[in-house]
Amino acid sequence: MPTPGTPLPPSLIPDCTKPEAHHAAYRSAKTNDMIFVCVARQGQRWKVELDAFSSSGATIPDEAVAVLRSAAETLVLTDAVTQANIAPDYISMWAIETEQRAREIAAAFHAAMHGLRLLYTAVPRQQR
Fold first, then answer.
1. Of 31, 74, 90, 122, which residue is the least packed, with the fewest Cβ within 10 Å?
2. What residues have CB less than 8 Å from 114, skipping those under 6 apart?
């Protein structure tokens, strides 16, 4: 198991298809002060969900959200996902063809959210 507060590899992204699994994974993320991430089956396809409200870190700045949004738009344009919602503290993407692909996407965005949060915490914003 990775150290709390570090990104999860695809194999450790929880399957939250069942509501009780979702509640347990969210509770665990909150207890460990981590960004919540999961995959869930929706019919024949999969959904990815990330929620930074489960951790006490700083909100991801608009400039960083733009990076995440651009990556999600590329996934939509290439048909890897059908739809994506990106906000400063929440990401969801759905209609992903396979569980493995959903896990890869979830792990990548989980790592990106962590990295962008750390970067924007370490690098002071310039006054405009």
1. 122
2. 5, 6, 7, 35
| CA dist 40 → 28, 79, 107, 127 (Å) | 17, 18, 14, 41
- CB atoms under 10 Å from CB of 46, counted, come to 25
Two structure tokens written together for 59: 């909100």
Q: Are 105 and 81 in contact (CB under 8 A)?
A: yes
Which helix (H) or strand (E) element contains residue 86?
Answer: strand 83-87
Query: Each residue's pLDDT tens digit in the chain (128 positions)?
Result: 566 668 999 999 999 999 999 999 999 999 999 999 999 999 999 999 999 999 987 778 888 889 999 999 999 999 999 999 998 889 999 999 999 999 999 999 999 998 888 887 788 766 54
